[in-house]
Amino acid sequence: MVELLEGPLLRVPFESLKRAAKDRKALIDEAAECVAALRHPLNAPPTASVPATAPSSRSASVAAPSPTPAPDAAGDTEMVDAPSELPAPNAEEQVPDAVAGSSSREASIERLRLLLSQLQGAKRKLKDVSRAEADDCQRCKARLEYLAASPKPTGGEPDAQLSWTRQRLDLLLVDHLLRSGYHESAARLVADSKLAQLTDGHIFEGARRVVGALMDAHDCGPALAWCAENRARLSKAKSPLEFKLRVQQFLELVRSGDRVGAIAHARAHLAPWAGTYMAELQRAVATLVFTPATRVPAYASLFAEGAWRSLADLFLRDLYRLNSLTPESLLMVYLQAGLSALKTPLSGEAGGSREDPLRLPAFQRLAEGLPYAKHMHSKLVCAVTKEIMTDANPPMVLPNGMVYSQRGVEQLMAQQEAQSKAACGGAGVAPPAGAAPGGWGVCPVTGLVFKREELRRAYVA
Amino acid sequence: MSANQTALDEVQKCIKRQKTCASKTDAALDSLISMVKAAQEELERSAPGADAEGTIARLHKSIEEAGLLKDINSSTKEFHTAISKFGKALEKAVDLDTDLCRCLRPCPAASSDPSLLARLLAEHAYRCGAFGLGDTLVGEAGLMDADQLRAPHAAVHEVLQQIRARNLAPALQWAAEHRPQLSPDGGPSDFEFRLHSLQFVHTLKTQGRGAALAYAKAHFAPHAARHLHHIQRLMGCLIFVDRTVSTAAGGTASTSASTSSAATNPYADLLCPSGWDAAAREFAKQACSLFGQASESPLTTVVAAGGVALPALLKMADKMEAQKQDLRSVDELPVEIQLGPSFVFRSIFACPVSRDMARPDNPPTLLPCGHVLCQQSCALLARGRGRGFKCPYCPMEARLDALRPLTFPGLD
């Protein structure tokens, strides 16, 4: 059976594993291309366009980026282009002379040195990838084992759901604490309950610094660094985060009165976004005229203090999306589901059990705006035994309309019998006329004395 | 085999393939690097004008011949195959794509006041005895009323820890101090007696029959009136205690041995150690109810209800979306969710005719035949028929002036 609610628990490490494996493939392909480039003799594409044969230009080509594609550049295109450019310089190489020979040796050594550093770089990066892959595999395994060890109860015992939740709740709490920025508390709970493999604290390690810098230091630096690291995926998701960060930097320059700096910043960092965010860009740049003291609401709002909080929220949204975390904390999802399922128009009014969470003001506030549960069937709880009334333990009506369960009224009558035995006719309630011992009782709410014969069974569909 | 087990097997394979792939790749890269290094050294040693291109061509050829890149690629491919197989197995075990947030509504209370949830979580931590966590959270969230949250639980927790450490003295003292609240007549409570029975069994096991008998003489007398039968059974334990001890010592926890000992020892239920957990739970429950609090952490209760309700809610959301409706805008859920008896906290009467919940202005009423309908439903049924009407569930006639309004008394 497919487990419906546990998707997020496994999605996070599994997607991360897939990403790491993809990175591995890309790194290996790059390295393979570097090696494959050896196949082609030294040709130096940069010189190919320059028709000069002078040694000076030849040495310049060595200093310039090598013909082998750099690991971060788009290797494929260069490799496609390379062969077509080959013939011309090759023809020149045919002429062996002493100067060309020695520079070809130098160039080849340089070429190998570059290859070497590329391979060593690949090796180093692969080591990181490998660690990430292994960690994610282990997380997947630990989480599957956790699910196998504590399967979700399906009906069965009435308290099974509660005891399952008792241990499950900690995972939801860690996630919520991390999202709320309570990192110490999250770490503490993880350590106390040994949840390291089951929770995603590692994702929030860097995020903590980014959010801290935004909120406390009003510094976009770490956030921009994070954007740079994840540029490809962010632009694929059409994230406005980087643009907004740049706008904020621009506004800070305007705020500080550095208009020249602001204009330079706008040229360098805002202009590239003109195609996507023209309107916003124009609005931001207009602050060069409308200073922070402006009362024009459209521009004054740009300088509002809440901007930093929204940037942090935007960053977190992207962080969750990139790491396959749910957009909102699962604790909130569970809380809302539970609150609507428990909420009735009578919640919070007198007559409920003290076990009802909706008696507490905090939960009532959380439940504001949530729908009420639907009740098509009656659920009657006996005030004496606290049991739910059923056909086996049906509701019994006292002469004044009070309803208790069958077992409840029996208990009330047995109580009277025991008390009158102990009191021997002294204190206590006097039995009604004509009532047999054990055949009468007292309603604990109204104090009404009732006899067994007066009870009537109610049929509740 | 369960889907979960299949996925576990696949992840094991993934782990293995990952290890192989990583080590093979590393080794291949090492040899690549040393080959390039060797070629580079060769060139550096060579005289100017030597055939540099030739050296590089030879290097390329020997790399090709060693098949290093092929090795890397094939082990990488195997690893990728393992991942995609694992992915398929995983999809059969858990729903990876479902969006659990699709019926979430914005929560104005939580977003306008972040400390609201933080306070709930801190109180939950204190309730569960995680005082370290509670204190850390109170500090991080800057909650001002930490003591108010903490104090009621600290005393309870002290006693609980003693119970878990097999010391019932503080619990017994607490039970004696709170007799008026714990038992209806102010005498020794049932809870106190259960603690004494547990202490008796514990004494019997750890200090032998003499000590246990002395304990019984000292403490059981006040409870004899209400629990005579139970005390007799406890005395039976005096004889049978060895039987569990011997089987426990002899047969090392094999299932057949333990079932046979349970079959032969009629007092196994009294002697089993789960009594301690039960005592701890009962103490927590009694203590919380004296404070007027729920016996279970309300956070746990709500989340547990959420766990039951969520699949149903998600289904509802999908069905409504198919009909171009939105679950997030309704005032009442369209379908009843059966949470189970642990989540019924008040009597709810739903009229079988109108399907409305009874409210103070529309109480349930008892018909002469014993069936119960809402007052408004009765009025509707009686309309146009004078003051009498037929019960919708049986042939009996009822009159509006002969109806009896019912009250389901509150629970506290």
TrEMBL record, chain A:
GO molecular function per UniProt = ubiquitin-protein transferase activity
GO cellular component terms given for this protein: cytoplasm; GID complex; nucleus
Q: Where is the composition biased (Low complexity)?
A: 45-65
The UniProt annotation puts the region (Disordered) at 42-103
GO process annotations (BP):
proteasome-mediated ubiquitin-dependent protein catabolic process
- Pfam families given in the database record: CTLH
Cross-referenced InterPro entries: CRA_dom (IPR013144), CTLH/CRA (IPR024964), CTLH_C (IPR006595), Fyv10_fam (IPR045098), LisH (IPR006594)
The CTLH domain sits at: 221-261
PANTHER family assigned: E3 UBIQUITIN-PROTEIN TRANSFERASE MAEA, MACROPHAGE ERYTHROBLAST ATTACHER-RELATED
Name of the molecule in the record: CTLH domain-containing protein
To which species is this protein native? Gonium pectorale (Green alga)
TrEMBL record, chain B:
Sample GO molecular function, one term = zinc ion binding
For this entry, the protein name equals RING-Gid-type domain-containing protein
Q: Does the keyword Magnesium apply?
A: no
Pfam families xref list: CTLH, zf-RING_UBOX
Q: Which InterPro entries match?
A: CRA_dom (IPR013144), CTLH/CRA (IPR024964), CTLH_C (IPR006595), Fyv10_fam (IPR045098), Rmd5_dRing (IPR037683), ZF_RING_GID (IPR044063), Znf-RING_euk (IPR027370), Znf_RING/FYVE/PHD (IPR013083)
- The residues covered by the CTLH domain are 152-211
Zn-finger region bounds: RING-Gid-type? 351-394
Q: What is its main location?
A: cytoplasm
| GO cellular component labels | cytoplasm; GID complex; nucleus
Keywords from UniProt, A to Z, are: Cytoplasm, Metal-binding, Zinc, Zinc-finger
* Organism from which the protein derives: Gonium pectorale (Green alga)
Domain RING-Gid-type, chain residue ranges per copy: 351-394
Against Gene3D superfamilies, the record matches this protein to: Zinc/RING finger domain, C3HC4 (zinc finger)
* Highest taxon of the lineage: Eukaryota
Where in the cell is the protein located?
A: Cytoplasm
Q: Would I find Zinc among this entry's keywords? A: yes
A GO BP term, please? proteasome-mediated ubiquitin-dependent protein catabolic process
